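Tip: read the tokens left to right.
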């Protein structure tokens, strides 16, 4: 029996432990009654007596007015301890907070808490008096409510602020007629001031705002003047708003004093209408200008009311705007200064007439095709100070395509001018070429520029066809475009030898194919120091000779044509420089020998070109090799400017038959084939001895190479030219030019020599290599 009871007891305890759930302990702060916007802090302790169970999580949800619902996981501080701040109570009403604790066995415990949220408000119901006057006491009526129901229990503290005045009130504030009554003095400054009330109750604070106008008890205000621009002998009527604490009173000659620039004005009459008073006064005679108007009010035997304004004695604005042919130009003139804006227009004859106060203005002149704005113009007088003209046709200028000309002449002092001028885009093929010019010496009557048209910077609007310029001086402005020049030049020959004289010729025309005289043409060969200058004649033609480069190859010859106001134009020509190939062979025409004699002579081979020659062979054909021996027959190289002497020795046997033996000296190589005739004349030994015996004196044959008279003449000319050049240089030229002058003379002599050379049979290059045929000379 005992054993049965023990077993039953253990079974009962096991079942109890298995079915137990976590224990909850919940604490809320501050309490279950909250104010709108206030936070609620929930602290939870969750433990489980089951040794097999552990606390896994804690969470909560909040339901409230309407469909309000939020869910939160609580934050674990330590095992079994959780907390959560909730700040979602922004609406008045009842809320249910359900808190849950769950263990690892999915066993859940929960607890529900009811929270009530209320709202405390404050409202400024009335302010008396409104408006308030300086020195008055202001009474505020303030209502407080909780959830829309009046709340008049003690415990509320108030703080009131008006302008820069702030005052606090404790719970002793009286409550009457559903309002708390608070008395406070307004600021002693006239104007509208902000009013704010702060009410502190329990753990919440409420605010209310408004504004109050504070006035002087005496109101004396000048509200209108029938005219502020006056002329001599004018009267003006002044309109006042005058009262004391809101009650109007009469203005009379006895309680008013009106002055302009210190001069008393006679009060002609006074009247009242509604809340306004009207005073008509006679003005003093003053010169043009702006003066102070001052009014004083005597109230209760004290001059305490004051008012002021400005009165302007006007300047006559008169004149006319016509072109040099007296044709009227429709114009609107606008004067602007602060809030003042006055516009006048010209009539059918171009005349205008108006009045403005003396002062500093911005003046805008709106013409048919342009607009002129003058800034900070000091107006002391305005008697016909403007002349304007616009020209849109019939004006021709060299180098400039004219679209329109605008002329501005202003006899006024101003700080800066802004111009807007329109152009006709149908007269301009390419608006990117539009350029603006100005002429500082424009003759208005003659419509002519007596100076230069100079380019100026401008903003060009191709959408509105408008040109804008900011300037401090006015003159004549031209909208147009630079005409283009066309240069057409060529080099006289396809190629030149190194340092030869190169001739270039060309013509310069405008875009209408009209020749342009006086164009400066600058030439340069790219990559060298060679430059030159030429100028076109009346037909637009120019020519120039210059010494070519000393390096072979193709060079860019850049020509630049310049003449204002045309756009510069360039042309690039190709100049090819090649090395000359000139080899000369000089041999004696004949040589006379007796049979059995011997003699030595030589052939001369000169490289007078600019190219080296290689692998040359020399032969003497037609004469038996038994008669002579050449010093050498092969030449590996002969450099430019080098001379080679080829020795030849003749040795005749006694058996050589008398007679003439013609032969040919020949030099051959790549691109070289020179020939020159040579004759060997042989006399028999017997004939020679008989002739010698007949002579009283010994005789000998002198062998002289056969030079042509042309070659001799050129040589003599060369000697005298060089000598004369040196003498002339010493007498006339500066030392810095000596080398250049001698060089030019030598080149001239060289040209003359080459003109008198006779070409011989040559071997020419194939035309496919595009080079000049090379000619070799023998003399």
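Filled-in amino acids:
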């Amino acid at each position: 029996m005992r054993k049965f009871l023990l077993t039953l007891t253990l079974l009962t305890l096991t079942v109890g432990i298995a079915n137990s759930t976590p224990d909850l302990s919940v604490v809320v702060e501050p309490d279950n009654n909250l104010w709108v916007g206030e936070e609620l802090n929930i602290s939870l302790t969750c433990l489980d007596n089951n040794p097999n169970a552990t606390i896994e999580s804690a969470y909560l949800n909040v339901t409230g007015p309407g469909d309000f619902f939020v869910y939160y996981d609580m934050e674990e501080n330590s095992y079994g301890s959780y907390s959560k701040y909730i700040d979602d109570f922004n609406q008045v009403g009842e809320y249910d907070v359900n808190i849950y604790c769950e263990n690892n066995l999915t066993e859940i415990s929960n607890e529900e808490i009811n929270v009530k949220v209320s709202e405390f408000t404050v409202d400024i119901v009335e302010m008396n008096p409104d408006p308030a006057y300086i020195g008055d006491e202001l009474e505020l009526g303030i209502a407080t409510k909780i959830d829309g129901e009046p709340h008049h229990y003690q415990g509320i503290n108030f703080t009131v602020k008006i302008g820069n005045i702030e005052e606090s009130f404790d719970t002793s504030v009286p409550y009457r007629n559903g309002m708390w009554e608070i008395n406070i003095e307004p600021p002693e400054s006239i104007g509208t001031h902000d009013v704010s009330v702060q009410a502190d109750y329990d753990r919440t604070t409420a605010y209310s705002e408004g504004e109050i106008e504070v006035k002087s008890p005496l109101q004396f205000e000048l509200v209108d003047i029938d005219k502020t621009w006056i002329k001599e002998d004018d009267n003006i009527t002044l309109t006042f708003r005058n009262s004391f604490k809101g009650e109007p009173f009469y203005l009379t000659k006895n309680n008013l004093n009106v002055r302009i620039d210190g001069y008393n004005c006679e009060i002609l009459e006074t009247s009242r209408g509604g809340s306004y008073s009207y005073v008509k006064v006679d003005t003093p005679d003053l010169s043009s200008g702006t003066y102070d108007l001052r009014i004083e009010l005597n109230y209760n035997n004290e001059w305490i009311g004051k008012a002021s304004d400005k009165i302007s004695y006007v300047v006559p604005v008169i004149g006319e705007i016509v072109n040099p042919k007296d044709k009227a130009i429709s114009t609107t003139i606008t004067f602007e200064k602060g809030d003042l804006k006055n516009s006048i227009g010209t009539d059918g004859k171009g005349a205008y007439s108006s009045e403005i106060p003396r002062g500093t203005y911005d003046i805008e002149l709106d013409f048919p095709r342009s607009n002129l704005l003058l800034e900070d113009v000091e107006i002391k007088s305005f008697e016909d100070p403007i002349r304007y003209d616009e020209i849109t046709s019939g004006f021709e200028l060299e180098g400039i395509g004219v679209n329109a000309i605008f002329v501005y002449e202003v006899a006024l002092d101003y700080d800066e001018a802004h111009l807007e001028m329109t152009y006709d885009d149908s007269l301009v093929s390419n608006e990117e070429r539009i350029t603006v010019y100005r002429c500082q010496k424009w003759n208005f009557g003659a419509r002519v520029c007596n100076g230069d048209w100079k380019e100026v910077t401008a903003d060009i609007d191709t959408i509105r066809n408008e040109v804008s310029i900011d300037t401090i001086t006015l003159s004549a402005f031209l909208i147009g475009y630079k005409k283009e020049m066309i240069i057409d030049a060529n080099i006289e020959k396809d190629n030149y030898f190194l340092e030869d004289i190169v001739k270039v010729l060309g013509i310069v025309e405008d875009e209408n194919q009209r020749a342009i005289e006086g164009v400066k043409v600058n030439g340069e060969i790219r990559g060298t120091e060679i430059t030159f200058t030429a100028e076109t004649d009346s037909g637009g033609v120019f020519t120039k000779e210059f010494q070519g480069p000393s390096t072979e190859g193709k060079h860019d010859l850049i020509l630049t044509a310049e003449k204002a106001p045309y756009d510069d134009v360039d042309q690039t020509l190709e100049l090819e420089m090649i090395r000359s190939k000139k080899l000369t062979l000089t041999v004696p025409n004949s040589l006379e020998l007796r049979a059995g004699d011997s003699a030595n002579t030589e052939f001369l081979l000169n490289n007078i070109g600019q190219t080296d020659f290689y692998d040359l062979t020399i032969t003497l054909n037609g004469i038996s090799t038994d008669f002579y021996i050449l010093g050498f027959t092969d030449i590996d190289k002969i450099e430019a400017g080098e001379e080679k002497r080829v020795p030849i020795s003749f040795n005749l046997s006694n058996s050589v038959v008398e007679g003439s033996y013609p032969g040919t000296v020949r030099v051959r190589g790549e691109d070289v084939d020179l020939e020159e005739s040579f004759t060997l004349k042989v006399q028999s030994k017997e004939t020679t001895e008989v002739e010698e015996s007949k002579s009283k004196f010994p005789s000998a044959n002198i062998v002289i190479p056969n030079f042509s008279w042309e070659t001799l003449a050129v040589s003599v000319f060369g000697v005298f030219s060089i000598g004369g050049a040196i003498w002339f240089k010493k007498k006339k030229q500066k030392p810095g030019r000596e080398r250049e002058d001698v060089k030019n003379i030598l080149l001239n002599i060289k040209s003359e020599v080459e003109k008198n050379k006779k070409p011989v049979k040559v071997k020419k290059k194939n035309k496919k290599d595009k080079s000049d045929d090379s000619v070799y000379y023998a003399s």
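The longest helix spans residues 709-732. Helices lie at 2-18, 685-694, 709-732, 738-755.
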